[in-house]
Each structure stands twice: as structure tokens, then as C-alpha cells.
Amino acid sequence: MSKEIKTDLTIEQKVEALLAQMTLEEKIGQMTQVRHFDDISISDIRDKFIGSIIHTQGPTPGNNAFEWQAKFVQLQWLALSTRLAIPMFFGVDAVHGQNTYAGATIFPHNIGMGATRNAKLVENAAAITAIEARATGFNWIFSPCIAIPYNEKWGRVYEAFSESTEITTELAKASVRGHQGELGKQISLIATAKHFIGDGSTDFGVEGGNTTLSEEEVFKRLLPPYRAAVEAGVGSVMASFNSLNEVPMHAHRKMITDVLKGQLKFDGIVVSDWKAYSRFGENEVINAGVDVVMAVEGDFNMYVEGVRNGVLSGVIPQERIDDAVRRILKQKFRIGLFDNPFPDLTLINKIGIQEHRDVARQAVRESIVLLKNQNNTLPLKKNAKIVVVGEFGNNSGLQSGGWTINWQGMTENYAGATTILEGIKKLAKHEVVYDADGSANVSDVDVAVIVVGETPYAELFGDIGGIINKYQLTLTPEHQLLVDKYTAKGIRTVVVLVSGRPLVVTKQIEQADAFVAAWFIGSEGAGIAEVLFGDYDFIGKLPHSWPKSEEDYQGKYGPNFWDDTIEPLFPLGFGLSYNK
Ligand code: BGC
After folding, report:
1. Catalytic residue positions?
2. What pLDDT does 1 receive?
3. Contact 518/495 with Cβ under 8 angstroms?
4. H/E element holding 49?
5. How far apart are CA 443 and CA 503, in angstroms?
6. Whose CA is nearest to atom 12 of ligand 1?
7. Whole-number mean pLDDT of the chain?
8. From the CB of residue 548, how many other CB atoms can be counted at a distance below 10 Å?
9. Ligand 1 atom with least separation from CA of 145
10. Which residue, 91, 316, 320, 435, has most beta carbons within 10 Å?
11. 108 C-alpha to center of ligand 1: Å?
């Protein structure tokens, strides 16, 4: 810490003492977040007093956790070599485990955690994520997403817990507590509630689109999880790409400054989303109340210069800059960064350990929802002759969804993960046949476990009907063929749907003897097998109502929520179990 600052002061006093010494350039530096590669040079980090660094898609900081830590140690030294020696934050999109690191424990995405309804489990998973994120050098996590999706065409439905405000509120609180630890105790990392606000309820489910909910509906349906996250002490909140009644959220002063910071008394950092400065009106973003900007992909110079000119010309009040910097410094003091600026080497041997994977496996077991089980097809008998069908059945990338190792996810296996087939093989007493594409000539089996689903996607790439439009509300023709082929054989069929949202599968549910909604399960495929074989019961409950037809989706967005005349195929909370 800067030598002039005494250590027996309160955090507020330390913040004020430091702030009083800072130049405008040093303040703007604190408000700047960059990537650890390509945007700016190493010397910029020191010369421009950069306050935080993000790692997301792109070159990794190294080949293993030691190298990741070493990279951040090296960058931290640059920050510490500046006049005031203010250490940096290192942020990461660890949204279902430390998912940017191959070998980390990867949990089911939040939609699955929402199906568990188990706040303690959500807290444990978040605590493990925090350990593995710290082990790879980070002290700021851009999670949890506490959106409330009203339209499953949105490509980020799976990042959110549920369409229910109550479920989301409870799990938001648990997740913040898990990531950061208990309120009042020393914490070592800050979490981020995102994306504030209305991200999941844009009209037609368009990522970054316009939300037309009335202010009353926003307060009633979308704000409670933020209130809970703030009460749990969340260190940061990320502004959203969407607009609220045509006002971009990044420029929404009323919601950010008056509501979030004012009414909710949020005293942490409002961080922008990607490249928000150039996208959403430059200094309007700062004046709306954003404290840290992701000045990435070419935005860096225009951001730093723009804010500087904004202050010098009086467009940005000095008080706004000071508010931002106070918030940033406060969180840095809160996590003890001035005393402990470097990652903890002893955490490295905790990455992907069995104890962590056991919790992820428990999460898989508790998240999968049984939608149909005719003639007690499930549980499978361990001595049954089983064929597992479809490449989703033996591919840990495909089973995990977006934000897994890569931003858009993986279509191959990744380090440390177990596939669904591997899990089934481990428990089966009979040799398990695998038919990757439905072409095998399989007849002498008792039951087929057909795994179908959505190829991983993230953000707007997953929107249905959007500008990219690669995805659909129904199964792909290839996956439909797998179901048709095996149901026509007259053997029992269990369909496992791996998806980021409810899909229109009314027909396939009719065709199959048993049907399981598995969401995106993450690295522990064995959790599926443990429930299919009946070692554990199904306890997952639908976190979304489940539409029966494509037309249903038209009535499921924006101000309408569920149009009262629409009967879902399954209501929110539905889920069968063996014991019923
Ligand atoms: C996403 C955020 C994410 C950020 C940083 C954005 O595109 O909307 O959820 O935290 O990128 O990677």
C-alpha cells in the first residue's frame, strides 16, 4: 500500500486518504479494464495506471495454473510499480465453475442449478468456483447472471436460474454468499450480479434488445434478485446490453444511479459490459453511473482520452469520477488486495479435485428433471443391455453448453470431464453399446438411452430467430432421426435432452418411454448415470414452464409473460420422481 496511508484506518478512511492523492489520470486508470493481451502494451498498464484486467475468450495466460498465476503476478508488479502502487483486479467469466480453465470443475449452468432449487448447493458450487478462480489467479468473477428469462428464444436462458423471480432471488443470494463468503468476514474475491437489468425479458428474446416492461413490472419481477444480491454484499453489478423502453441500460442513469446505487444502497462497482463505451454513448455511460468500463478491442485510447476530455470540459462532473474511484478502491481494500496482491500458490492443487467434482456430480443429479417415465422404464437395471445413442452421449463439450473452455463452448471432450456414456459404463454390469450417429445395427438390447440436444452457443449466437439464427426451438432433423430410428425398433427408449432451455419436444416425449430434461450438465457426466440407474432419485423441478408448441413462444415474452390462454406442456415446478 502507498506508504503515506496508515494501516489502522477504516476502509472508508483509507479510500479517502488514497483518493486525495490521486491525479485525474490515475483515477481514470482505476476505471479502466483491459484484456491481458493485444489491446494495449504492457507499458500502458503501468503508464495509464490500469485498474483491472479481464480474461475471457482468447489466448490463455499460460499452459497451466502456475503459468496463469505467474502472468498475473507479472502484471500485478507493473501496477505495484506505479506511484501509488494500487493493485489490480483480475476478472474472469467463471459462470459455471472456473470454466475458462481446462481441468477445472465445471458445474451445470445456472438453469440446472435453478432446477435443483437447492440454495446450499448453489452456495457450495459458487464457493468452489471461487477457489478454482483464485487458484488460476483471479479475484473478480463476472457471475452470477440473475436474469429472469421470459422468452426461451434468448440465447442466454441457461445462464440464468429460472423464470421465477422467487427462485432467482433465493439462488442469487446463495450464489453471492458462496462466491464471496459471509457478510462481514474478510473476503478474497468479488462476485458480479449481471446484467442489470432486463437482459432476459427483451421482446422476442433478442440478446441486447429492447425490454418493454413497465417500470412497475421491472421493479416487481426483475429487481428483487438485485436487492438480494446487494443485501448479500455483492461487490459488483454489470450493466446490461439491452435497452429498457428504448434507453440503453448503460446510459440509464435513473436505474443505475437512482435505483441501484440510491434506493438499493449498492456501494460496490458498476462494471460495464464489453466495449460499452463506444457502443452506448461514450461519456453518457460514465454519467449514468458506470464505474469501470471494459475498454477492450480498440476502445482503450478513445475511452481514456474521452473520459479525460469529458472531465476537463465539464461534461463529466469530478464528483462522478470520485464516486467511481471510491467504489473501486473500497472493493480492493475489502478483499485485502493491498496487503495480499498476489494469487495463492497453495490453491493450485485444489483445481478439479475429487471433492469439488463430487459437488458438481451432486448438482447434476439434483438438476435433471424427469418429464415422463412410462411403464417404469427408469430406473435402468444394471444388468440390462443398454445402447447409448448420439454423439451428445459421449462428448463432454457438447454436454456442457457455451462458456466452457471457450466462449462458445466446445464440441470435443475437455480435460478432466466425464461423459454420460462413461458414467453409464461405470455403473452398468453389462457391456454398453455406443451408437454415435444412429448407423449401428443394434438389435439385441433392452433399452436405448438417446442423448439429443443443442450444440453449445453463447450470447447472441444462441438467439432463436435473431440475426445469426443458427438454432431452432425443435430438435435438429439428425436428432429426430435418432429418436425415430430407435422408437421404431420396439425397444424401450429413454431420451435425455441436453439443452439450454425448454425446446418443443411434445412429439418426442410421446414417442419415448422416458424423457429427461438434463440442461447443460458440465464436467460430471456420471451424475446422469447415477440417477438413471436409480442409485439416486430424481428431485429436479422445472425452473421454467415448458411450452408445448412453437406458437406458445409467441405468447411468452415481454409484458405478456404467460398469456393466460396458453396451457404449458408442463408448468414451472414440474418433475417426476421414482418414489411417486
Ligand atoms: C457478456 C458478459 C461477460 C462479458 C465479458 C459480454 O459479452 O455479456 O456476460 O461478462 O462479455 O466477457
Report:
1. 273, 459
2. 47
3. no
4. none
5. 29
6. 56
7. 95
8. 17
9. 9
10. 91
11. 19
Helices and strands of the chain, counted as H and E runs: 20, 19
Q: Which three cell numbers stand for residue 75?
A: 502484471
Atom of ligand 1 nearest to the CA of 142: 10
Query: Top-level CATH class of 11-19+29-348?
Result: alpha beta
* Domain 368-553: CATH superfamily, name plus number: Glycoside hydrolase family 3 C-terminal domain (3.40.50.1700)
CA of 240 to the centre of ligand 1 (A): 9
**Phi/psi of residue 212, each to 5°?**
-105, 20
- List, as one string, the DSSP characters of 223-250: SHHHHHHHHTT-SEEEEPSSEETTEEGG
| Lookup: cell for 378 | 427408469
pLDDT of residue 415: 97
44-57 residue pLDDT tens: 999 999 999 999 98
Ligand 1, residues 33, 55, 56: which to mutate, most atoms within 8 A of Cβ? 56
Nearest-atom index, ligand 1, CA of 143:
10
For the chain, list residues with pLDDT below 70: 1-6, 38-39, 555-563, 580
The domain segmentation of the chain, as residue ranges, is 11-19+29-348, 368-553
Kindly report the protein residue whose alpha carbon is nearest to atom 2 of ligand 1: 273
CA of 376 relative to ligand 1 center, distance in Å: 43
- Residue pair 32/50 in contact (Cβ under 8 Å)? The answer is yes
Angle (CA) 60-64-65 rounded to 5° is 95
pTM, full prediction: 0.97
Closest CA relative to residue 175, chosen from 186, 190, 165: 190
Q: At 406, list the grid cell.
A: 471457450
Pocket around ligand 1: residues whose beta carbon is below 6 Å from it? Answer: 56, 93, 142, 194, 273-274, 459
Helix (H) or strand (E) holding 124: helix 119-135
Cα–ligand 1 centroid distance for 192 (angstroms): 11
